[in-house]
């Protein structure tokens, strides 16, 4: 086998990346057992390294990977023209493409599309226009339904940005040319190149066979003692400053005594060297030395007795490094040259040959062949010395082969000329192992990714965000989880769910290492994938409070401590500190920030998180960070500037920043409190986008053109809350400060709510300590507690103490909201319009005289009307400067009330807008912030009032007048009016929403269809 070439030419090949004999043209029909490249002149057709379903073109000098080689097989068809199937060597995928689809988009055409290999592609049988001379350029076309399609290159597919040529598939005109609409498309003309002659491979080329991890060899036939069989080998050169390869003298004598030394820097092995073509072959076996270092074993040529014959064979041994770290040291009795090999590859045939640089000196007649204490003998010349290593012509080169001996087969080495004449050599082959590239991996679940050692054994650690390692993982913590994202075909990448960054080296073709146990090599990193099916949904990792919780939740924050006593956050002189006094714990409420996406995107869907302002229970103060003191406090001013530095030119003018808190999960119901970064530039962002950095290498760009004063939410964080359990201090530290980790829990303090009333009804609301005292309306429309006959003149009757309870919204089943209303103090005209007086908190009117008592907001009634989902309140009493307030029923407003349940069975009245409670102060009803100060009430069902002021049944109004009854809002309903004796005086179906019906003087009973019957007094 004539595989060597001169020193001068070798140097040229190193620069060009190819052998001078690689490009031999073939004009014959392709051999189905060979691999070919398809050239368009300067480029070669293959598949993308990552998106292996995409066709690409690459320059000839960089296209020796298997992804650029194809088998070409003639198909048995009934067509007059020969058709061929092309299969990619690396992916084993058939070149099958889909027909380009149609489009109606302006400026685009459906006659061309990116060339993506699809398993069910109908364009899978190809015609070569130069089939008679495959070594000449020809057009590759396919036909479907009488239409011609071919491979083309375009620079701006569908009008997109101009790029380098993109391989596409296009409809042709039947004569091998693109249709007129395909501007800029060029039909690809390819010629077959048969790479007949072998090429010596570098360490980088060899290791690229398995994503830079190494390569496998397959021997046919094999032998039991083969040290290469079933192993992933790694090709290594040596690196260091000015590495010198020196013989025992400068005359290239045959006796090997090779030294490899670096003049400075420690010498080291390198698997990425793309220059030297002589390599060491690490076999994957390792041993731990006395210094607890992992030492590799390498293939080395040895002497041996095999089946009664003396042979040169392979064994494994270590290579040491000198004490000064500058030189390699062979194992005792060996020479470094016997560890060094050139590996050549015939791309067309797929065959591998292994050549040693040296073999041990053959023993004498009376010496034992198994003795390794022999000097090596050079069997190939190395040139040029001290620079790039190559093997030059030598008369007695040795090569490896499976030798057929008397009773055994063995992997041995022999003189090249002699070996090539043997039938054993002619009938055997060495090929690169075809590691199984996998596709259709599950990309819809999250994974924990276990680290593997060099022997592909799992360690105790898992990969987590930032390329860090941890022995712990959690279904609640996305920084410990990874999405497996398809690049297309058999190519994948591992993307951290928290950071969105790719795990280093885990991006490329996925190979089956031990799929049954989840072990794969992805890119050049071998990992074990452990499914985490519990980590589903868009809100993994960060507490997402429901809308109901945002509206209603009051909670304390508990600190996980070593002691049995719970520790809470409290205030001391407005500063937040830790305490064991549960009675002093701060109760918080929530105000959500805008929801932001973050981290990895899996199947087009990202994780989401929301930060929250922490408010006091009365919503009057906010959690904020004091920069100067590095502490947190409650402040009545919400500064919505942020944590900037002078370098960012977005300095806040405040020393106190509102804290926007992420509840970051560290376990089930356990959290770290991390601070979202909010920025408000004080100057316009003009030069370029302003980059804000966050945890785990994340970043956010504030857009160029953002005006000063515009609040920007980044969705990032890099600071967290830390509690010193010793002194109770609460401060801020960096998110990755492990020594300052603090775990927080949420202690729900939200009260239960009474849900007894499910539809409108009349009720009396009485003081629990005095059931004779009931809620009513005064003549000046304030709320008061009165009893029958109170105030001497007996103004208050039992009907005055009856309230109409209407359901405002039942959307939150745990906290229904109600209107509390009365028809008292409403004119007949207004009653006819369905208006009533609604109980409200006058907190919005505290600046008006008379609307406070002891500085606390009073409680009163405002005239209003409910229509559909809207309540309109009128200025019977001023609401600040507003004449009319229009409020959606299901929104927080001053007329919405919840009935907070107390442990003794009573209720308290909680206003939905302020979340304050009704209390009694010196016989005046006022609003207080704490339920502990609230009045407690009982509620009891009662009949509708019988008064000529008007009676409301749901939204139907019954108004008694002189000799008549007016019924509002009941059009289409049947009405029956009876006198006190039960005699029917009217029975009709109303035709309007303001019907007037004659009725006798005295008490009458009005029954409106679908409503409870009510009494009215007709004058």
Description:
- It is a single chain.
- The chain is mainly beta.
- The longest helix has 10 residues, at 7-16.
- The model is unreliable at 1-27, 640-655, 877-885 and 947-954 (pLDDT under 50).
- β32 and β33 (458-464) form a beta hairpin.
- The chain has seven helices and 80 strands.
- The strands form 19 sheets. Strands 14, 16, 18, 19, 20, 21, 22, 23, 24, 29 and 30 form an eleven-stranded antiparallel beta sheet that branches. Strands 57, 58, 59, 60, 61, 62, 65, 66, 67 and 72 form a ten-stranded antiparallel beta sheet that branches. Strands 1, 2, 7, 8, 9, 10, 11, 12 and 13 form a nine-stranded antiparallel beta sheet that branches.
Main attributes of the structure:
elongated; disordered N terminus; ten-stranded antiparallel beta sheet; 80 strands; 1019 residues; mainly beta; 45% strand; 7 helices; eleven-stranded antiparallel beta sheet
Major sheet description: 11 strands, antiparallel
Amount of helix: under 10%
Number of helices: 7
Question: What form results from the Cα inertia axes?
Answer: elongated
Head-to-tail CA distance between termini: 126 Å
**Average pLDDT reading:** 81
Rg measurement, Å: 43 Å
Number of strands: 80
Poorly predicted spans = 1-27, 640-655, 877-885, 947-954
SS content category = mainly beta
Beta-sheet strand percentage? Answer: over 45%
Helices and strands, with pairings:
Elements: H1 7-16, E1 24-25, E2 37-39, E3 43-47, E4 55-59, E5 70-74, E6 84-88, E7 112-114, E8 127-128, E9 138-144, E10 147-154, E11 166-171, E12 186-187, E13 189-194, E14 199-200, H2 203-207, E15 217-220, E16 234-246, E17 255-256, E18 259-270, E19 279-288, E20 294-306, E21 309-321, E22 328-330, E23 340-346, E24 351-356, E25 358-360, E26 376-378, E27 381-383, E28 390-392, E29 398-404, E30 409-415, H3 416-420, H4 423-426, E31 429-432, E32 446-452, E33 458-464, E34 468-470, E35 482-488, E36 491-496, E37 502-514, E38 519-522, E39 525-532, H5 547-552, E40 555-559, E41 567-572, E42 575-579, E43 588-592, E44 596-602, E45 605-609, E46 612-616, E47 622-626, E48 631-635, E49 656-658, E50 660-667, E51 670-679, E52 690-693, E53 699-702, E54 712-723, E55 730-734, E56 744-748, E57 761-767, E58 770-777, E59 783-786, H6 790-794, E60 803-809, E61 817-822, H7 828-832, E62 836-841, E63 852-853, E64 856-857, E65 859-867, E66 870-879, E67 882-888, E68 897-901, E69 907-911, E70 917-921, E71 924-928, E72 937-941, E73 951-953, ...
Antiparallel strand pairs: 1-13, 2-13, 3-4, 5-6, 7-11, 8-9, 9-10, 9-13, 10-11, 10-12, 14-23, 15-31, 16-18, 16-19, 17-26, 19-20, 19-23, 20-21, 21-22, 21-30, 23-24, 25-26, 27-28, 29-30, 32-33, 32-35, 32-39, 33-34, 35-36, 36-37, 37-38, 38-39, 40-41, 40-56, 41-42, 43-46, 44-45, 46-50, 47-48, 47-49, ...
